[in-house]
Amino acid sequence: MDAEMEDARGAEAQDNTWGEDAPLPLSDKESRILDLYDHLIKLEFEVALQKELQRATIDPSENVSAQDVTNAQDRLLEARASWMLRNEVAESVMVVNPTIKAVHRGTESTPIERDLLPYVEHRDEVTTALAKRDMERQKVNNELTKVQVEVIQIGRRNVELAAEVLKLADTANQNNAEAIDDTGTREEIERLERELKASRQKWKVIKGTASAVVAGSGVDWVKDAELKDIVLDPV
Prior knowledge:
Elements: H1 2-16, H2 28-55, H3 66-104, H4 111-115, H5 117-175, H6 177-181, H7 183-216, H8 225-231
Helix pairs in contact: 2-3, 5-7
């Protein structure tokens, strides 16, 4: 008798073991309901999108300004955001009660609700892991931003030095008219001018790249004077 009970417990434990890739054990009816719900959500999204597109339709004979296009895009984004928010709230309301019953395992909990506990725990573990990775990613982005700041500062300093070299060369040319007639000196000045032009172009490319990196990194660059100077052109 004890052996049979032990075997039954082992079988139950094996059934309750939940692997990372194991699918949620749903009946055919439950799977069908979820598929229909997903299809309904998709149809609602398409209907809402079509309604907003009809509202945003512009007569080709009318004069359309850039502001009109921007307003239409804003309305479309607002409609999409409103639709997504509504669905997220509805899903949260439907999920919260079974989740609470699964966690607390009350006497009123159904077997299906109790079976949700391993999945809820796994969801929490995944959420924690994702939050940790996001913090690490943010840290890397901050370090990358600091490096970009240094690159910009070095590039700007190089441009300033090149400008000083060119200024000194112009002064030397004005004070030494005879030096201008020298072929070697003239070629050296032309070389410096070409290098200065290339340095300025390179700095513009680096500036644009760093600006895009900082703006898209999620870092609050508005409150940082150095980062703000990178994203926005100095006045």
